[in-house]
Amino acid sequence: MSGLELKCGKAFASFELYKYLVDHSYRANKHLDELREVSVKHEWGGMCSPPDSIPLLQLLVQLLHAKKIAEVGVFTGKPFWKAAGVQDKVDLRLAPAAETLKGFLQNGEEGTFDMGFIDADKTGYDVYYELLLKLLRPGGVILIDNTLWDGNVIKPEVQTADTLAIRAINDKVLKDDRVTICMLPISDGVTIALKK
Ligand SMILES: C[S@@+](CC[C@H](N)C(=O)[O-])C[C@H]1O[C@@H](n2cnc3c(N)ncnc32)[C@H](O)[C@@H]1O
After folding, report:
1. Coiled-coil stretches, from where to where (predicted)?
2. Which of 135, 172, 183, 185 could make an SS bond with 11 (beta carbons 3.0 to 4.6 A apart)?
């Protein structure tokens, strides 16, 4: 699996154990593999979601029968949509994410989304979370990426704005009665929040 070492599951006891998990959960897929091959070579290749999070996303889409999903923070992918047959399913909005999500609300789309994936600028996470909670139907799910933030969440000496924002959203969702949550140690930490 190319580029696996880019984000090697820091929460795992060893890289070998992490690789075992990937080898036993990620199923090879021509289009995804090609996309990943290209993405990891990009100068910002580290932005690409690692393969351990892909089965989770696929599973949730199927469990939720998700038809309407907002990915907040898009990286590569567009050149592969046509070949993968998903071109007509993707509505790319190149704009600050808060504006796009507010636009959906103004358009009367509250409660119509099945799923949201927060994976953009970390200091925007709280805003995206609140907007997505409004956009989601009850029983819908928000995935929050990077919630372990390369292990920096437990390093008190790390006080960057991004780290503070990740700690804040983690503290917030833990106490948020509007959702049921689970934080998973895969990828760079992924929190699943189910809207009640
Ligand atoms: C980590 S990458 C997304 C990775 C992608 N979700 C994936 O799984 O491959 C983050 C992306 O968010 C975008 N981004 C950052 N700040 C943003 C903002 N305020 N509004 C919209 N997109 C933003 C960046 O341009 C970047 O492409």
Report:
1. none
2. 185
Question: Is 35 or 137 the better-scoring residue by pLDDT?
Answer: 137
The domain total for the chain is: 1
pLDDT tens by residue, 105-126: 999 999 999 999 999 999 999 9
- What's the average model confidence in pLDDT over 67-90? 90
Distance 78 CA to ligand 1 centre (A): 14
Residue 111 domain boundaries: 4-195
ipTM of the complex: 0.98
CATH number where 95 lies: 3.40.50.150
Which residues in the chain belong to E strands, given as ranges?
A: 69-72, 113-118, 136-145, 179-184, 190-195
One-letter amino acid at 67 equals K
* Residue 114 phi, psi (nearest 5): -90, -25
**To test ligand 1's pocket by mutation, which of 47, 56, 78 has the most ligand atoms within 8 angstroms of CB?**
47
